[in-house]
Structure to design on (907 residues):
């Protein structure tokens, strides 16, 4: 299968509300984790999150669309505008059936949903608004983007928690190989309403540490869970020849390989499958382990899950041989938005020849990883491996390569 | 190119669970629509649903499976196990890494999300909900992806696994996704299908507000009247259909019985409106044409069209126009029927339930009818197979779907007789 | 509650469906179709739902189908509030 290229990036992240602001903050090691401000978290065991403080949806979409959407979709409106402009795409130059939208989603529009559930139970069925039908469900973002930008090709929505953000890139590759010329992909999530946070609390993996700089420490001996965040990235993908034909000579990079696996049921006695996902993705890209220059790790921040990820990385790539980084220490885990943001980091790392740092972490040497901590590392990069795991057993790996 | 065939079918549809109970009901033209029993619907505008007579324990689920899953997950587990048993394929004897899962879904674990919301919010009193009352499986309810997790655990799959969540087209798109993975070689076998269980106050209230559901509350058995002049809206349904879809040579090697080939699939968006459809049938017509092109099949070869036929004024007019646009004169010759008249509209899962009906129609040589069709509508003037099933040798069957978000999908199934 | 004024209606509309892009809704728009003003069918349903909530009315399906302009909505609400 021919490798599609990434031609545009749009970002909404807790530590930056557009692509370059986020990237600069990421290189500077500026974290977006802080005490929750959207509601008073005093009575909740988790008080730190990565919120997109200062985001104003009215800057990115007409009031009508803001009214009928949850925050997750409003982030996508903003990131999609930025990605289209970045790729210098004039949608009028494409036929509508040649363009598609394929996004990942995890929790749906849970804040919007909570408000309408409250109306239902405090006032009755007649109080439920008409937009509930189109704002809460997992397909809301793809539908809205498709309508807004007139993209009528093979659209889609995939949900595999954090892994879904890589699964959609592979789906974009499939439809590009079959004749679609342009895909808007990636994902955004926003699950930080009181009910949304409560849902996440039940997984037992969230950090209860109240100090933002101590709350999310993947691969650290003090790792005690992860911090949830909101936002994500929208990525424009095209076939390389097509991009070149419209005068875009320097795409950010290509999706050279991908694979997904699923972990066996707990207690089955069978081994986890992240390692196989890595091996299959490298094989798909035609890349040897020696050629991998950087790993953007899933970095769960839960000791057992960190250990498993480190084992998979070192088993395939060798212990300490390849730099590994977790920029999501500055954003928290963004669910469906997390892996697209990591892919954005991989692409900008390739562009600038610099590895963004992992912040606040003192690497546990037992993991055998060369974790890039504290400050960015300048180096020649060509091939980056991005890993993502979704709660419930989903694993995905993508190989991103410069051209 | 590799080819993908259906070798196992499991169904939990309104009425009694199980593939054969489903088939018997729809060929007899019986309807499962009734006054809602899953909650007290008296305060709602529409009080009708097509419900599954489903007892998870009697259906063979373990105590733990029942405790941790929503009704939607329970349907999927039962349907997946029936499909696996039907196919005779045992995922754990081969390489489980070559077996994947794709489950279509529209509204996730909606019943559990709503029930648990009531608990933590003290029945809607507090915005700052109390996590002290949360259930340990709540995180699995907020994400639809847990539905794929359950099916993968139940079947032993370790290959590519996901939930496809394109609203009411998800039941078709999950099958399309599975076929793509098989054709490209990412998996040899996919356990694919869809599930949804939306009959609960919030979803019923949504369709009330949109005025999209039928208000024939005095006559629930005849409430859903696709293509009929007096149609007044859809009836919500629930349920699941899951398939074992295999690479053709893999199925041949193990001597599997083949129901049909999934020969063509397409998804298109209307780029127009989140809930509206153009009256001219453009977008669905495009989806049908694209699926036929992929299958390399001419419109004239279609022997039966399994309709979306939701029973809303808007859809049935759009869909009729779409058949005329995409099939030309053949639209007037091909039988078109909507099983939603009997099993309602189960949102994200109905596409798979309709694929099950289509695959069984090929297998058994019977076109299921449209129930409750009595008065023709001048805007809907095709052969809708009113009331009574018809025997016919079916080589090519088209099934279509349409949903919120502006999605339209179509799939073409072909008889094993056509596999050279 | 005695009735709904144009001002009340305008406030509900902007709460439900957002301000108009680049212009104010005026009484000259009373007989302009919602679609021409820039509000789609969903926006009309949302407005209807909000009016039901705030005025304690139940608006039947047939009445909604006939609400194609702001004037239709205001007229309907006032006829039915006085009837109560």
């Amino acid at each position: 299968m021919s490798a599609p290229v990434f031609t545009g990036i749009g970002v909404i992240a807790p530590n930056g509300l557009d692509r370059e602001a986020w990237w600069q903050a990421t290189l500077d090691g500026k974290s977006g984790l802080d005490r929750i401000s959207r509601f008073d978290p005093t009575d909740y065991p988790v008080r730190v999150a990565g919120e997109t403080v200062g985001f104003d949806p009215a800057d990115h979409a007409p009031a009508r669309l803001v009214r009928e959407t949850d925050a997750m979709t409003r982030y996508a409106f903003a990131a999609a505008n930025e990605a289209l402009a970045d790729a210098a795409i004039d949608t009028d130059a494409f036929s509508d059936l040649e363009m598609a939208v394929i996004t990942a989603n995890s929790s749906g529009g849970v804040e919007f949903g909570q408000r309408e559930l409250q109306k239902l139970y405090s006032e009755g069925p007649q109080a439920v608004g008409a937009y509930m039908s189109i704002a809460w469900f997992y397909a809301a973002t793809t539908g809205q983007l498709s309508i807004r930008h007139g993209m009528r090709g093979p659209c889609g929505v995939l949900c595999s928690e954090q892994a879904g953000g890589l699964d959609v890139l592979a789906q974009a590759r499939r439809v590009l190989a079959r004749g679609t010329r342009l895909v808007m992909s990636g994902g955004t999530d926003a699950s930080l309403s009181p009910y949304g946070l409560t849902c996440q609390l039940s997984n037992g993996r969230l950090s209860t540490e109240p100090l933002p700089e101590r709350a999310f420490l993947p691969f650290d001996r003090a790792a005690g869970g992860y911090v949830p965040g909101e936002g994500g990235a929208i990525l424009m993908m095209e076939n390389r020849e097509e991009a070149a034909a419209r005068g875009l000579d320097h795409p950010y990079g290509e999706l050279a390989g991908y694979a997904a696996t699923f972990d066996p049921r707990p207690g089955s006695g069978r081994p986890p499958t992240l390692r196989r996902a890595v091996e299959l993705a490298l094989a798909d890209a035609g890349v040897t382990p020696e050629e991998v220059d950087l790993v953007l790790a899933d970095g769960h921040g839960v000791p057992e899950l960190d250990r498993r990820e480190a084992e998979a990385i070192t088993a395939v790539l060798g212990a300490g041989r390849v730099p590994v980084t977790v920029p999501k220490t500055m954003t928290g885990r963004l669910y469906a938005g997390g892996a697209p943001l990591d892919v954005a980091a991989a692409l900008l790392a390739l562009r600038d020849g610099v590895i963004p740092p992992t912040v606040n972490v003192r690497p546990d040497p037992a993991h055998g990883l060369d974790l890039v901590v504290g400050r960015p590392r300048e180096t020649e990069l060509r091939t980056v491996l991005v890993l993502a795991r979704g709660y419930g057993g989903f694993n995905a790996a993508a190989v991103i390569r410069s051209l | 190119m590799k080819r993908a065939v259906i070798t196992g079918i499991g169904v939990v549809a309104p009425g009694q669970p199980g593939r054969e109970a489903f088939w018997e009901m729809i060929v007899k033209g019986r309807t499962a629509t009734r006054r809602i029993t899953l909650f007290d619907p008296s305060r709602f505008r529409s009080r009708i649903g097509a419900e599954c007579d489903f007892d998870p324990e009697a259906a063979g689920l373990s105590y733990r499976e029942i405790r941790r899953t929503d009704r939607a997950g329970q349907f999927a587990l039962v349907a997946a196990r029936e499909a696996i048993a039907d196919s005779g394929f045992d995922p754990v004897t081969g390489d489980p890494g070559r077996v994947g899962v794709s489950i279509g879904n529209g509204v996730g674990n909606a019943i559990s999300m709503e029930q648990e919301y009531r608990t933590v919010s003290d029945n809607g009193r507090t915005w700052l909900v109390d996590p002290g009352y949360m259930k340990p499986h709540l995180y699995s309810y907020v994400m639809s992806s847990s539905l794929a997790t359950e099916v993968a655990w139940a079947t032993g799959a370790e290959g590519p696994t996901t939930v496809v969540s394109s609203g009411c087209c998800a039941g078709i798109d999950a099958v399309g996704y599975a076929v793509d993975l098989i054709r490209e070689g990412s998996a040899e076998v996919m356990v694919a299908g869809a599930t949804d269980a939306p009959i609960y106050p919030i979803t019923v209230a949504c369709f009330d507000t949109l005025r999209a559901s039928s208000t024939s509350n005095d006559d629930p058995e005849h409430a859903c009247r696709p293509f009929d002049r007096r149609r007044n809206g859809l009836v919500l349904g629930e349920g699941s259909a899951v398939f074992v879809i295999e690479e053709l040579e893999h199925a041949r090697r193990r001597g599997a019985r083949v129901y049909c080939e999934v020969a063509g699939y397409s998804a298109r968006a209307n780029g127009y409106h989140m809930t509206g459809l153009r009256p001219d049938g453009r977008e669905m017509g495009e989806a049908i044409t694209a699926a036929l092109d992929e299958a390399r099949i001419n419109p004239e070869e279609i022997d039966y069209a399994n309709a979306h036929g939701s029973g809303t004024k808007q859809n049935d007019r759009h869909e009729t126009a779409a058949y005329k646009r995409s099939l030309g004169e053949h639209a007037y010759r091909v039988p078109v029927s909507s099983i939603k008249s009997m099993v309602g509209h189960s949102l994200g899962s109905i596409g798979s339930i309709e694929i099950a009906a289509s695959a069984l129609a090929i297998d058994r040589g019977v076109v299921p009818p449209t129930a409750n069709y009595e008065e023709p509508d001048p805007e809907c003037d095709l052969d809708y197979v009113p009331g009574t099933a018809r025997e016919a040798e079916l080589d090519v069957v088209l099934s279509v779907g349409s949903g919120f978000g502006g999605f339209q999908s179509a799939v073409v199934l072909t008889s094993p007789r056509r596999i050279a | 509650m005695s009735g709904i004024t144009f001002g009340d209606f305008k406030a509900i509309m902007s709460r439900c469906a957002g301000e108009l892009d680049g212009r104010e809704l005026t009484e000259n728009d009373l007989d302009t179709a919602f679609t021409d003003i820039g509000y789609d069918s969903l926006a009309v349903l949302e407005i209807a739902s909000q009016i039901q909530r705030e005025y304690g009315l139940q608006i039947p399906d047939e009445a909604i189908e006939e609400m194609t302009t702001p004037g239709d909505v205001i007229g309907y609400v006032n006829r039915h509030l006085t009837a109560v």
In short: Chain B touches chain A through 86 residues (CB under 8 Å).
